[in-house]
Amino acid sequence: MPTQSVLYSFPDTATLSDSLAEYILKAQRESVDKRGRFSIAISGGSLPKTLTALIGKTGVKWDKWHIFYADERVVPLDHPDSNHHLAKNTLYSQVPIPHENIHTIDPDLLDNLEELADAYEKELVREFAQKDSARFPVFDLILLGLGPDGHTASLFPGHELLSEEDRWVAYIEDSPKPPPRRITLTLPVINHAARIAFVATGAGKAPMLNAILDNPEQGLPAARVKPAAPGQLVWFVDDPASAEVKFPKSEFKL
């Protein structure tokens, strides 16, 4: 059975970011205690900036983190559109994460989308296959955003990738949001995560948050994120984003 979503709504983004940081710290502690490492996949947008709330907090074991990308734009790693470039400038440059623990796309394969996606999938296999016996990798945490059309990672409404059942990593060359060429984790990989946290802020997200949480039968990509128990699915949003939501809100506590 899919896990029931939990919705946390905060008065401002600063409070949201600090609470999300505490949630991540708890996930890190549990993962490091069990397996000696913390595997996390992140999307782009405002998520890397949100993670800066972790800077300076006690208990962050950056050397145990292994960071992957839930999706990535197929551009050079130093390109302004690159999710890695954004995360490097906002977070990695300020914390002691070992370089080899940050798993990027192969910049030598940008001209061949299929090879690029295959190479990133092999990177996941190297990191997860010998540590987990599951059919798909089991991330300790995946952090996702919510697009105005209901997309998440680089999984877009009506796209054939929503039906992918086998691949871990897939490519897209016709993204309706530029840049058009991307790679993305597939829904089966996302839904095998131990914890999934969506982050959505601003009044502009209110109609879509209502559609995802109150009308999931529409089948929008973000509504298809349904980890099987005992996986956790939580939403960290601000009050403007949740203004139209009837879905019950929970008090944040760890």
What does this structure look like?
Helix content is 26%, strand content 17%. 40% of the residues are buried. It has a six-stranded parallel β-sheet, with helices on one face. Strands 4-7-6 form a three-stranded antiparallel β-sheet. It has one domain (6-238): Rossmann fold (3-Layer(aba) Sandwich), CATH 3.40.50.1360. The longest helix is centred in the N-terminal third of the chain and has 23 residues, at 13-35. With 254 residues, it is α/β, with parallel strands linked by helices. The model has no long low-confidence stretch (mean pLDDT 94). The chain is built from six helices and nine strands; from the N terminus they run E-H-E-H-E-E-H-H-E-E-E-H-E-H-E. Keywords: Hydrolase. It comes from Lactarius akahatsu. It catalyses: 6-phospho-D-glucono-1,5-lactone + H2O = 6-phospho-D-gluconate + H(+).
Low-confidence stretches: none
Proportion of β residues? 15-25%
Terminal Cα span: 24 Å
Query: Helical region count?
Result: 6
Q: Given the helix and strand composition, which structural class is it?
A: alpha/beta
List the domain count as a whole number: 1
Output the CATH class name.
Alpha Beta
**Helix/strand order, N-terminal first:** EHEHEEHHEEEHEHE
What helical percentage do the residues reach?
25-40%
Overall 3D shape: globular
Rg over C-alpha atoms, rounded to the nearest angstrom: 17 Å
Arrangement of strands in the largest sheet? 1-9-8-5-2-3
CATH architecture: 3-Layer(aba) Sandwich
Instruction: Describe the sheet with the most strands.
Output: 6 strands, parallel
